[in-house]
Amino acid sequence: MSKGLPKRSEDYSLWYNELVKRADLAENSAVRGCMVIKPYGYSIWEKMQAELDRMFKETGHSNAYFPLFIPKSFLSKEASHVEGFAKECAVVTHYRLKNSEDGKSVIVDPEAKLEEELIVRPTSETVIWSTYKNWIQSYRDLPLLVNQWANVVRWEMRTRLFLRTTEFLWQEGHTAHATKQEAVDETVQMLNVYATFAEQFMAMPVVKGVKSANERFAGAEDTYCIEALMQDGKALQAGTSHFLGQNFAKAFDVKFASKEGGLEYVWGTSWGVSTRLMGALIMAHSDDNGLVLPPKLAPIQVVIVPIYKSDEELDKIEAKAKEIMAKLKVKGISVHFDHRDTHKPGWKFAEYELKGVPLRIAMGPRDLENNTIEVARRDTLTKETVNLSEIEIDAYVEGMLDTIQTTIYQKAFDFRAHMTTEVNSWDEFVDVLENKTGFVSAHWDGTSETEEKIKELTKATIRCIPLDQKVENGACVLTGKPSNGRVLFARAY
Questions:
Q1: Whole-prediction pTM value?
Q2: What distance in Å separates the CA atoms of residue 111 and residue 107, rounded to the nearest whole number?
Q3: Are residues 394 and 453 in the same domain?
Q4: The domain boundary residue, chosen from 256, 285, 314
Q5: Three-state SS for 397?
Q6: Which of 83, 368, 383, 459 has its CA 20 to 30 A from that of 244?
Q7: In which domain, by residue range, is 379 found?
Q8: Is 70 exceeded by the pLDDT of residue 1?
Q9: pLDDT single digits (tens) 227-279
Q10: Distance separating alpha carbons of residues 357 and 349, to the nearest angstrom
Q11: How high is the pLDDT of residue 27?
């Protein structure tokens, strides 16, 4: 199954694209720039959704749904917001088609022009805040904690499956608060939710930080982010949480009667992650043999492959496999018994290796005689023979899955540590970007002009100003001007 899969070291981009397709995660669609997420890929996304949704609800949020279409006039109400998204918007101008004169095709009916064009949502701040105006009258209506799972459209010229597509799936939280501090606390809380999910479920270490003014979300006062490092040394923004201040409340006149009897604008936040996390999951852990999935997000955590020559042998193996499966399912472990007679065991081994199934159990007639199984780990590609008389299979598998989850995280953590480099001069900065890559920790003078110049010269951007940034006097690597702390630069997706 993985034969011919490009090597990461030779062509990382091709390796990624081929792996997404061969592992049955997604494929390009008939619509340019859009993708079809296949069942196996979507099952991973569903597990991501389920865990995130649980975490959102545990922090007091409820799900709702808002329109796909946004009146064009809404976007012009918040100046920086429209400027940030104007070049990416898909616009609906007509509401009807009709047959062409020759009857061989359909054309847009020129008589069916909309009075006001509709924007296919690139993000939902405007339509949601126009709704919040009707929902919020008093301090008793606050805080308003809402999330929606939806699709959005941002017109992209260069697309890549999961990482950047014209249409993608995501969640977007939108909250309203009575005070600035409550809104800031909410913004930080959701950043921490994303970081916890990335590290504990995706097994992907992240840096929590704040975006520079140049990289800030259009319409926000502050953007908090989690940044991850992929195996090719490029950074990937894995989630963002925005403190909106009162910008959208003022744009849509969303006020509330305070306890003191005054009329005040509410304070807002928005936050989101998308199917881009699928790309991050693939690039953070997978190898030249295929996917490496952390057990907590793997659709199939354990697969049992029988090795047999006759139906009688299969029946005996299946009976034993069912005993094992029953014990594992009680523990909530997803297990699959692959008794297909259309493929040989070796082919199945390669298939499940390609698809990143964390644990593979093989059983043959001799194993039945000896009461043993062969257990193969996907993350280390190691195998061992286990005597079922000496272990409790459910506890053994549960412990092994926990070990795999931890091992995958630690490997990614160690890689990031190795690929994070402090530099103190421009020559060092350029050398690391060109020859080592990864995160570059460097002093910056705090100006947008310097940030833009560095980007122009190196294609590296400030990924974040780390939340744990230490006060440290230094000199900007480009201008030599004073700096009181290091920021993280990297080339990024």
A1: 0.96
A2: 11
A3: no
A4: 285
A5: helix
A6: 459
A7: 296-413
A8: no
A9: 999 999 999 999 999 999 999 999 999 999 999 999 999 999 999 999 999 99
A10: 10
A11: 98
Please count the structural domains in the chain.
3
DSSP letter (8 states) at residue 437: -
Same domain, 409 and 450: no
User: Tens digits of per-residue pLDDT, 453-472?
Assistant: 999 999 999 999 999 999 99
Query: Are residues 123 and 205 both part of a single domain?
Result: yes
Is residue 6 in a domain?
A: no
For residues 29 and 87, state if they share a domain.
yes
The Cα 349–Cα 361 span in angstroms is 10
Segment 7-25 mean pLDDT:
97
One-letter identity of residue 109: D
- 178 and 312 inside one domain: no
- Asked whether residue 316 is domain-assigned, the answer is yes
Of the chain, the percentage scoring pLDDT greater than 70 comes to 99
Kindly state whether residue 3 falls inside one of the protein's structural domains: no
Q: What's the pLDDT score for residue 3?
A: 65
* β strands within 317-472, DSSP E: 335-337, 359-363, 372-377, 383-387, 420-422, 439-443, 461-466
Q: Kindly state whether residues 125 and 239 are assigned to the same domain.
A: yes
HSE of 98 in the Cβ direction (CA atoms, 13 Å)? 9
Going by C-beta distance under 8 Å and a sequence separation of 6 or more, which residues neighbour residue 10?
Answer: none
As a whole number, mean pLDDT of residues 151-164 equals 95
Are the CB atoms for 284 and 232 separated by under 8 Å? Answer: no
CA dihedral 196, 197, 200, 206 (to 10 degrees): -70
Asked if 231 contacts 288 with a C-beta cutoff of 8 angstroms, the reply is no
Q: What's the whole-number average pLDDT of the chain? A: 97
Q: Which residue(s) pair with 359 in the sheet?
A: 302, 377
CATH number for 455: 3.30.110.30
| 163-166-168 Cα angle (round to 5) | 60
**Last residue of a domain, which of 347, 382, 413?**
413
Q: Are 430 and 177 in contact (CB under 8 A)?
A: no
